[in-house]
Specification:
Radius of gyration: 17 Å
Distance between the termini: 12 Å
CATH architecture: Orthogonal Bundle
Number of domains: 1
CATH class: Mainly Alpha
Shape: elongated
CATH topology: UraD-like
Length: 173
């Protein structure tokens, strides 16, 4: 039997942050603030609460969260989440010319917007990612800032789903 919502709702802040602090890339402050919104009774409710915390943060904090994300295709030290997500999208298997194009577009994007290109790459392919990057680099900063935050919310939702699947969490309790 998995963990119940009743048990999660009784966790101390440290356990909550240890468990959910990586849902938003290098931003455990989201888990810390959402802990105060307990109790939760569903994944949807928890995801909505985390998204709301980020949405209500000031722009400086949101920008820092965006900047915590790695460039897609970068050969840097990635979090386990990011590494797994990029591998599933086929980025690691891209041919060198495709990787170089992705890196060049990432540099242009970051130069224009001041944060890395962020896309929830689950269910995507390398070609879809490149096409989306080419499309979004044409947006203005305000549009792209909002688009990047929406992608962050999607990523967090996928990561919560993964944790749920790993724990076989029961919705009752």
């Amino acid at each position: 039997m998995g963990v119940t919502w009743e048990e999660i709702n009784q966790w101390k802040v440290e356990q909550f942050i240890d468990t959910f602090g990586t849902i938003y890339e290098h931003s455990p402050w989201v888990a810390e603030l959402v802990w105060e919104k307990k109790p939760f009774s569903s994944w949807e409710q928890l995801h909505t609460a985390t998204s709301s915390i980020v949405a209500s943060a000031d722009e400086e904090r949101q920008l820092k969260l965006l900047r915590n994300h790695p460039d897609l295709g970068a050969r840097l030290e990635l979090t386990d989440h990011s590494q797994h997500e990029q591998q599933r999208a086929g980025i690691a298997a891209m041919h060198e010319a495709g990787l170089e194009e992705l890196r060049q577009l990432n540099r242009e994007y970051t130069g224009k917007f001041g944060f890395p290109f962020i896309m929830a790459v689950r269910h995507s392919t390398a070609d879809l990612i490149l096409n989306e990057l080419k499309r979004r680099i044409q947006l203005d900063r305000e549009q792209e800032f909002k688009a990047a935050l929406q992608e962050v919310y999607k990523i967090a939702g996928f990561r919560l789903q993964d944790w749920n699947a790993e724990q076989l969490l029961t919705e009752q309790g």
